[in-house]
Amino acid sequence: MATKSQASTQQEKPLASAKKKKINLAFKVENIVASANLEVELDLFNIAMEVDNVEYEPEQFPGAIMRLKDIGTTLLLFKNGKVICSGAKSEEQIARSIKKASELLKDFVS
């Protein structure tokens, strides 16, 4: 068992055999979140009734949730035409999601 003076001496000595590790700066894009403004008013109730994979529960959340399973993204749709797209891994995937959503929503705008 080390005495107090021996313990403090041991703690003060740097480890001569310790090697510095390089910090890995690599990363992978997992999720991009983007916002858009369609500049139209959306009828969220009828969108949820007529468009597949759209949920709307205004008591729980003021936006409708549109899942674009073929693209792999989820969009939050708001009555004022604002859209939040999440789950994308690239800007191209976001662009495809916004374009597909606008095609699905064209009959429900005012």
Characterise the protein shown here.
It is a single chain. This protein is 28% helix and 23% strand. It has a single domain, classed as TATA-Binding Protein. With 110 residues, it is of the alpha+beta class. It has three helices and five strands, in the order αβαββββα. It has helices at 4-12, 44-50, 91-105; strands at residues 32-37, 54-55, 64-68, 73-77, 82-88.
The oligomeric state of the chains shown is: single chain
Number of domains: 1
> What is the count of DSSP helices, taking H or I runs of 4+ residues?
3
CATH architecture: 2-Layer Sandwich
CATH superfamily: TATA-Binding Protein
Q: Which structural class do you get from the secondary structure elements?
A: alpha+beta
Portion of residues within helices: 25-40%
Q: How far apart are the first and last residues' alpha carbons, in Å?
A: 81 Å
